[in-house]
Design goal:
By secondary structure, the protein is mostly helical. It contains 15 helices and no strands. It is globular and about 50 Å long.
């Protein structure tokens, strides 16, 4: 692997290793502190709002001044330092403040990383999943290890571990490759080339897909704990999901040689409807683990197709902004809405009914995207 791609793989490994600490266990940590469902949802949603606003800000700045690498490195170091605020308090207000401050500088990291990956892969874009699989591998290793570690030392250890992981990622970012500036510098109005009917429909549907994931990312671990499952099972269930995701990602080249981006996205929506419906209808350990296998499609193929689809749609001089917009609308605005919705309804209707609602939202997004795709010409030959 060339050195530039090696650093990218390391960054994916560390970024999603930290995510493996945060996603399954941080909300559980807040729950153990005694925070209400509304407070947990508010923390998650506030993080998403911050990511939306500042990922776009940093993306415009990076494309305008060709400073993507410098911003990426600086934001890594500042966000790592700001996470230390969580070591100092267990009060909701101060944790909310720390969430916003950390999010301001954490916001552009994943979108910039995706843009770097598209540039580094060049003509091999269909191999994106193989590079991204390093992140999934880190996630699965972390959740398996933390399941046992939390049983032994308590859920509070994740705050310190995330702090250490953030600093590791920041240090590795110093080796990030310098990329050549595009032949044509971006102009003030270049972003308008992203405002097309195809982009708008895709972003609306991606937004709905991520709204449907809000209940899962916010309350799945808590749901399992309330059902009586231990932290090892909780960690193992997340690990099963990510193992399935890895299999999808290492198969990315074959997937996208055989099927168009639109086809992969439609199938991902359909499987999401089945997944959330299954969580609504069953509490069986076997069924829950089997449903986690569908993460290969609802996240794995959906995520890969989204990155590649947006890279295809964005003009050459606005690739960073294209990935930032995609990340902000889906993983930012979509998850924010999902977090707020699930946080507001969790104590009123319970987790089972939240998952039923998630299925309906995914169905709506899939129907809109399928209807548009069937009535409009597909993309020209896929790149990479």
């Amino acid at each position: 692997m060339p050195s530039g791609r090696g650093v990218l793989a390391a960054q994916y490994f560390l970024y999603f290793g930290v995510m493996g600490m945060y996603l399954p266990f941080f909300n559980l940590y807040c729950y153990k502190l005694g925070f209400s469902g509304w407070q947990i949802g508010a923390l998650s949603a506030s993080r998403s709002v911050t990511l939306i606003l500042f990922s776009i800000f940093w993306g415009v700045l990076a494309d305008r001044f060709q400073s993507r690498r410098g911003i990426y490195v600086a934001c890594n170091f500042i966000s790592a330092a700001l996470w230390g605020l969580f070591l100092l308090t267990a009060d909701f207000f101060w944790m909310w403040t720390a969430t916003i401050l950390h999010g301001i500088f954490y916001a552009p990291l994943i979108a910039f990383l995706e843009a770097f990956a598209m540039e580094a892969l060049g003509r091999d874009k269909k191999r994106y999943g193989r590079m991204r699989a390093w992140g999934s591998l880190a996630f699965i290793l972390v959740v398996l290890a933390l399941g046992r570690g939390i049983d032994a030392y308590g859920v509070k250890i994740i705050v310190s571990l995330i702090f250490a992981g953030g600093w590791a990622q920041a240090l590795v970012s110093l080796g990030f490759p310098r990329t050549a500036a595009p032949a044509q510098r971006p102009k003030a109005g270049d972003w308008r080339q992203l405002v097309t009917g195809r982009v708008a429909i895709f972003q609306i549907c991606a937004f709905l897909m991520l709204v449907s994931h809000g209940a899962y990312y916010t309350f799945f671990s808590i749901h399992l704990a309330k059902l009586g499952y231990g932290t090892f099972f909780i960690g193992a269930s997340w690990a099963v999901a990510v193992a399935a995701e890895i299999l999808a990602m290492i198969s990315s080249e074959r997937i996208f040689k055989r099927w168009r981006y639109e086809t992969v996205l439609i199938v991902s929506f359909a499987v999401a409807v089945l997944r959330w419906g299954g969580l609504w209808s069953s509490d069986s350990a076997v069924v829950l683990l089997m449903l986690q296998l569908t993460h290969a499609v609802t996240y794995g193929t959906f995520h890969m197709a989204s990155i590649l689809y947006m890279d295809h749609l964005a003009p050459p001089q606005s690739k960073t902004l294209g990935q930032v917009v995609n990340n902000a609308v889906s993983y930012g605005l979509g998850l924010m809405a999902g977090f707020f919705l699930s946080g507001a309804l969790f104590q009123k209707i319970g987790a089972h009914n939240l998952f039923a609602l998630s299925g309906g939202i995914a169905l709506l997004g899939g129907m809109i995207f399928a209807a548009y795709s069937l009535t409009h010409r597909p993309l020209t030959k896929q790149k990479g």
